[in-house]
Design a protein that fits this description.
The protein is mostly beta strands. The protein is built from three helices and nine strands; from the N terminus they run βββββααβαβββ. The two termini are about 15 Å apart.
């Protein structure tokens, strides 16, 4: 990825559903980017998650994403410079609502996915396989930005 695109996954607060059905904050998770596609007009990527504990299932998810406002503009959600789609596995599961997108600051966006199923029926997380949560596309507003 070009150094001109400075994207940071700032904070991910993820709730998981343990086999017993109790929702609680999870710390044994790893987040990453994948399937990065850069063009002169946009930057697209998937937000991925893996889980360490056996039996961990995906529940409600909130991601804060910092971005380079010189390249993408301020308040990308309000300005229409951001597209966020639920990943196919979550969409096909049928118990995850489409992402709710809000500008958190001029250069940070909040992305929330709500799980609406019964406890214990969320998608399982694995340490061997990264699960895509969402596909993000940021539209460039300045091709010459650092």
């Amino acid at each position: 990825m070009s150094p001109r695109f400075h994207i940071v996954l700032l904070l991910v607060g993820l709730m998981v559903l343990w086999p017993a059905g109790i929702a609680q904050a999870q710390t044994g998770l790893a987040f990453s980017f994948g399937n990065v596609q850069e063009t002169p007009d946009s930057l697209a990527f998937d937000v991925l998650v893996t889980g360490a504990a056996p039996g961990t299932r995906l529940g409600d998810t909130q991601v804060y994403l910092n971005y380079n406002e010189a390249a993408f503009g301020e308040a990308v959600a309000y300005q229409g410079n951001l597209r966020v789609d639920l990943a196919p596995a979550l969409r096909d599961h049928g118990r995850y609502r489409p992402p709710v997108v809000n500008d958190n600051t001029a250069a940070r966006v909040s992305l929330t996915i709500e799980y609406v199923g019964r406890p214990g029926e969320g998608l399982p997380l694995s340490s061997d396989f990264a699960l895509a949560l969402m596909r993000i596309v940021l539209i460039r507003t300045d091709a010459d930005a650092p």
